[in-house]
Design a protein that fits this description.
The chain is mostly beta strands and 785 residues long. It has seven helices and 48 strands. The structure holds copper (II) ion. InterPro entries: Gal_Oxase/kelch_b-propeller (IPR011043), Gal_Oxidase_central_sf (IPR037293), Glyoxal_oxidase_N (IPR009880), GO-like_E_set (IPR015202), Ig-like_fold (IPR013783), Ig_E-set (IPR014756).
């Protein structure tokens, strides 16, 4: 009898799962199939599809007669197919639009084999408009729009494909590694970036911090521009060098937190005025290529929706260590990343001055770690390395020959393969734990990515610290995806809420979500008090960032019925679109720490416009059942309590490990001299001959792992076979085949996917964008990116 009922419970979980039927183990990392292209960038389009972008490179997968650098991965089958992308999307930024479409911004010029400049040169030979071999177009100004489609749509139709035609729709400036953040009306702000790539965004010494001779783009601009022209952001000048992929978070006031180098400010996008905030303690750099893990903590009724941003890891390399556009001055792969974490509440409501607050160190040093906010309000950190930085290069100032580079082109080493979980509500000293979490066998270094899936698991993919596809180096071009199952997957059943609307408004009438008694186990009255409704935007992931990622817990009250069903009376969004910008999101209902599957919703009006708001309606008072019944759902997640009633269990193991790592960090902070000594010592250790099993062909999760001499001398991958075929394709014929002739976001018929079914009001068409002419000379393409 007991066996039978547990089988039934197991079957119920499988039926409610939107995966293929397979048992999953909490804390495990399992194969997620192949991504066709290396997943440098990803976003979740709907409940079926994850869209993936790579740089233009020599992927084996072909589409329309050239290597693919776009793909779509199916959540149900864990398989992917190539999608055509016209322009080189290398190191773009991206963001959702209010109607559920996604946009990507900028990238690289057209390249050919080996990352070399494509066959149709432009800009005096420093870039290319097209390459005949890879058939990629210049993507530096591109704005590409995708309307997510489902299997009910025709994927071969124009409306399901990337709109990618810079002749029609483009930014005013050439940008890669720009920041992107949405405003409260859904407008996207693009900030800064490189014109033509490089390791960091400066020459050294830094004599032209504004433009770097034309290689830096210190301006911001809007999409849709609606007549607004690009303007210089003074903060980009101040932070010159370490200012690409700036961390940007819109605040409730409408100002934006901007963090780059070790500086911080609040920026008013309506007036372009800046208010300095304190510097990052310890001068730890969090932006690319230090690439710390950064996220806004959950916005909750308890914190009155006032944002706090968490910065973890990155690098405390000093100014002279960073080098310039070409490469770092030190052997970064021997230099420990930072484990330091700081919190910042940029707009305190108690009258205090904004100040960084020391948080618990991560359990390990980590560069390129990234935060995924889970439905239970905890943050997963995943991916990255314990040593070094993002970027790749054929040499450094110290190791001048590529044949002597110990990890090929990778500027990071010692992959951090074990995720960890941060509980923002736990007492200080006990916020981090990796108890019960598995390690991956795949290194996820530069150009890897991760994102929350609608079933509350996490998709992990990518890694390619190489100029072009290289399958035989230490840290190869990676096509394998993995799925991480957080501890709440220990529950055999999940809440199955009904009544979640397809759109949420800013303020207005509350709605009811009903949970049947099979959605939880134990006391109904207790479960009701332990239920949260969260709106999560997983964001657009690249370079260890999830641009636009936000978590907002809605206000709720409850009525518990005597049949064990629970009605959650749920408020709409707070009546301020700056707190959670309009656009697509997932709604998760979490009971006793166990989340439901996410339901896709559109927050706001679906259009780029000042969002309609109304006052929040009062919620009914809580009503417990007079006869408390027990739910028929089985099991309860090891993650235990949710954000509302957090018990904050602390782990002795994590405290001990944290202490050890903390010691290492303190050592790292001693500065350049000791850091370099340490580097030399590690380099010597790394170069000592040793045997290495084939299963561990790189220094996986052990920064002291040794690399055999036989693996140190390697050919220059991807440099052979450069094709320089000539110009006939420079006519941009490829674009002519696209029928759309206007900004696709502004087309009413464009966003008609059955999954969204969201009407899209027409926008005022943006005025024609004048061609941008830079007066300053361009630099040659750098070696490092
Ligand atoms: Cu990149």
């Amino acid at each position: 009898m007991l066996l039978t009922s547990s089988l039934v419970a197991s079957a119920a979980w499988l039926a409610s799962s939107i995966h293929p039927a397979q048992a999953v183990t909490a804390g495990s990392i399992v194969d997620g199939g192949d991504t066709t292209v290396s997943a440098m960038m990803m976003f979740v389009g709907n409940s079926q599809k994850v869209y993936i972008l790579d740089k233009a490179e020599g992927n084996a997968a072909q589409i329309n007669g050239h290597p693919a650098w776009g793909a779509v991965w199916d959540f149900n089958t864990h398989t992917s197919v190539a999608m055509d992308v016209k322009t080189n999307v290398f190191c773009a930024s991206g963001m959702h639009l209010p109607n559920g479409s996604y946009a990507t911004f900028g990238g690289n010029g057209a390249v050919t084999v080996g990352g070399n400049i494509g066959s149709v040169p432009t800009d005096g030979g420093s870039a290319a408009s097209f390459d005949a071999t890879y058939q990629d177009y210049d993507g530096r100004k591109a704005i590409r729009i995708l309307n997510p489609c489902t299997d009910d749509d025709d994927f071969s139709s124009t409306k399901c494909q990337w709109f990618d035609n810079p002749d029609v729709l483009a930014m005013q400036k050439e940008r890669w590694y720009s920041a992107a953040e949405a405003l409260g009306d859904g407008t996207i702000v693009l900030i800064g970036g490189f014109v033509n790539g490089g390791y960091i965004n400066r020459n050294y010494p830094n004599t032209d911090p504004t433009f770097e001779g034309g290689a830096a783009e210190p301006t911001y601009e809007f999409y849709p521009a609606n007549g607004r022209t690009a303007e210089i952001m003074q903060f980009m000048v101040k932070t010159s060098g370490l200012n690409s992929y700036a961390h940007t978070y819109l605040m409730p006031s409408g100002k934006m937190l901007v963090q780059a180098n070790y500086s911080t400010m609040l920026w008013d996008p309506s007036t372009n005025t800046e208010t300095d905030l304190p510097d990052m303690p310890g001068q730890v750099v969090r932006v690319y290529p230090a690439s710390g893990a950064v996220a806004m903590l959950p916005l909750t009724p308890a914190n009155n929706y006032n944002p706090t941003v968490l910065f973890c890891g990155g690098s405390n390399m000093t100014d002279e260590m960073w080098g310039n556009y070409s490469w770092p001055a030190i052997d970064t792969f021997y230099y420990p990343a930072s484990a330091d974490c700081q919190r910042l509440t940029p707009e305190p409501t108690d009258g205090s001055a904004p100040a960084y607050e020391q948080d618990d160190d991560m359990l390990e040093t980590r560069t390129m770690g990234q935060f995924i906010i889970m439905p239970n309000g905890k943050l997963l950190v995943v991916n990255g390395g314990e040593n070094g930085t993002a970027g790749y290069s054929q040499n450094t100032d110290v190791t001048t020959q590529y044949s002597q580079m110990p990890y090929g082109m990778s500027l990071a080493a010692a992959p951090a393969t074990k995720p960890a979980i941060y509980d923002p509500n736990a007492p200080k000293g006990s916020r981090w734990s990796n108890d019960g979490l598995s390690s991956s066998s795949i290194a996820r270094l530069y150009h890897s990515s991760a994102i929350l899936l609608p079933d509350a698991s996490i998709l992990i993919a990518g890694s390619n610290p190489n100029v072009d596809v290289n399958l035989t180096t230490f840290f190869p071009t990676t096509y394998k995806a993995e799925i991480f199952y957080p501890p709440y997957f220990s529950s055999s059943t999940r809440p199955s809420p009904s009544g979640i609307p397809s759109t949420l408004t800013y303020g207005g009438s509350y709605f009811n979500i009903t949970l049947s008694s099979s959605s939880y186990s134990g006391s109904a009255n207790t479960a009701a008090g332990n239920t949260t409704v969260a709106v999560i935007r997983p964001g657009w992931t690249t370079h260890a960032m999830n641009m636009g990622q936000r978590y907002l817990q809605l206000n709720t009250s409850y009525t518990v019925n005597n049949d064990g069903s629970i009605v959650m009376h749920t408020s709409q969004m707070p009546p301020n679109a700056n707190i959670f910008q309009p656009g697509p999101a997932l709604v998760f209902v979490t009971v006793n720490g166990i989340p439901s599957n996410g339901t896709f919703v559109i927050v706001g009006s679906g259009s780029v416009e000042t969002q309609p708001t109304s006052a929040a309606s009062a919620l009914p008072v809580n009503q417990l059942a007079s006869t408390d019944t027990s739910g028929s759902g089985s099991g309860s997640g090891s993650s235990g309590n949710n954000t509302k009633n957090n018990g904050a269990t602390s782990s002795h193991t994590s405290a001990i490990v944290g202490g050890v790592v903390g010691g290492l960090v303190a050592f790292g902070i001693l500065g350049a001299l000791i850091g370099i000594c340490l580097s030399r010592r590690r380099r010597a250790a790394n170069r000592a001959p040793a045997s290495l099993s084939s299963a561990n062909a790189y220094a996986l999760s052990d920064r002291k792992a040794r690399v055999p001499a036989s693996m140190m001398a390697r050919g220059r991958g991807g440099e052979s076979g450069v094709v320089e075929s000539g110009g006939g394709s420079g006519e941009r014929d490829g674009f002519g085949s696209q029928e759309l002739s206007a900004d696709p976001y502004n087309r009413q018929d464009y966003n008609a996917s059955s999954d969204w079914n969201q009407s899209t009001a027409a926008l005022t068409a943006a005025p024609p964008i004048p061609p941008y002419q830079d007066d300053v000379p361009r630099r040659e393409n750098g070696m490092s990116f």
